[in-house]
Write a structure and sequence with these properties.
Blueprint (H helix, E strand, L loop, with lengths): L4 E3 L4 H9 L4 E4 L2 E4 L2 E2 L11 H18 L7 E9 L4 H14 L6 E7 L9 E8 L2
Parallel strand pairs: 5-6
Antiparallel strand pairs: 1-2, 2-3, 3-7, 4-7, 5-7
Amino acid sequence: MTKPTFFVTPGYGERLRDLLHYSQAVKIGDRVETSGQGGWDDDLTIPESLEDEIAQAFRNVERTLATAGASWKDVVHVNSYHVGGFPPEVNETMARLYRSYMPDHAPIWTQTGVEALGLPEMRIEIRVTAILP
C-alpha cells in the first residue's frame, strides 16, 4: 500500500494549516486530491466580483496541485460548491476557465449549492482529483 504524502500550499495553505490544522492536498500513488480551494488571496481576502472569485479559486487549485507535482491537465474530477445559486455568470465563468485550463479534455463535474462555506464572504469552493501520468 502506498503511503499518503500531504502538501501545504505556500502562503494561504500555511496560514490555514496553522489556524485549522489541515493540508491542501494529498498524494497517494498517482492520485492527487485537493481540499476545497476558495477564491482567496494569501491574506484570505475574497474579491468582491463573483467572476474574480471564481478565477482566483482556479488559480488556487493550480497552485495547490503544483505542490504535489500535478496540474490542471491531470484533473479528472471537479466538485464545486456554490453559495447563492447558479446565476448565468457562474456556469459561463466555470466553462470558460475549464476550456482555458483544460483545453484537451473535459473532466467530470459535480456542482452543489450550499448555504455557507468556510469563510462568510465565500461564494465558491473547488476541489479536484488529479491522476498523474
